[in-house]
Amino acid sequence: MNKWQGVECKSNLFRRVVLKGIVVLGITAMAIGSFAVSASATSLLEKIKNGEAIRIGYSDDPPWAYSGGNNEPLGISNTILLAVLKKMGATKIEPVVTEWGSLIPGLQAGRYDVISDAMYVLPERCRNVLFTDPINVGVNSMVVPRGNPKGLHSMEDVRDKGLTLVTGSGFASLKSARDVGIPDDKLMQVPGYPEILQAVKAGRADAGAGDYLTLKKAVNNDESLHLASPYTESGKQNYSAFALPLNDQAAVDAINAVMEGYIGSDEMLASVSTYGYDKLLLPNGRTTAELCKG
Prior knowledge:
Blueprint: H1 3-40, H2 44-50, E1 54-58, E2 66-67, E3 73-74, H3 76-87, E4 93-97, H4 103-108, E5 114-120, H5 123-126, E6 130-131, E7 136-137, E8 140-145, H6 155-160, E9 165-168, H7 172-179, E10 187-190, H8 193-201, E11 207-211, H9 212-219, E12 225-227, E13 239-244, H10 249-262, H11 266-272, H12 288-293
Parallel strand pairs: 1-4, 1-5, 9-10, 9-11
Antiparallel strand pairs: 2-3, 5-13, 6-13, 7-13, 8-11, 8-12
């Protein structure tokens, strides 16, 4: 064997060692990745059993879901979910606040275990998340400048007068506006309710659409805005529920089992009465399975 053959043999040996190391590193990386995915995929029920913190995701959406001064989860839907989770044995809660349009992507990315915000059960959303049974029927409204100078009492009025409507990105009212024929160039999409009010106050939009309770609370102390009255809703009623990942049906079933005796109870109504929730907002027997069909 000449020296070049020796170099070649050593080179081949080196390559085999390097390749073997790459394979080992690759397998190790895959194992670590699998462990990370497994850890992030821990179900809500397992976390409750292990005493881990349950992460709830919501937007700044009063009176349904928002944070207090010490980051305490407040609002109707937060109050209901916290009571349900407590009955299930949860002892630790970790709030995660994000924009409305980021709620479902955040859930899919594992940033939280459940969306606690009151989210309408819509067929297109049912393809991306699992919904619990409804916690309320949605009552919508429209905010307009004080005195309602353009006489707007429905989305159809906005459409017929060629005016601009503002609503939240991902809000059900966006779909309702499109369904009644308001063109996209007359639809302004913003992150949430503060931006809806600001757009109407600044004259960038003629009216703003959204949830009745949320808009009512938002304009309560604003002398320049009020809710259109009377107001005629467009399209069918919507129902809100909590949302969980597609792979956590067991947690959905467990939450539903607790909510069956809790939603509509005196205990539940008393806990959310301060936010304006009353029996008129109770879901009237509609099921999530029906709502997901459209």
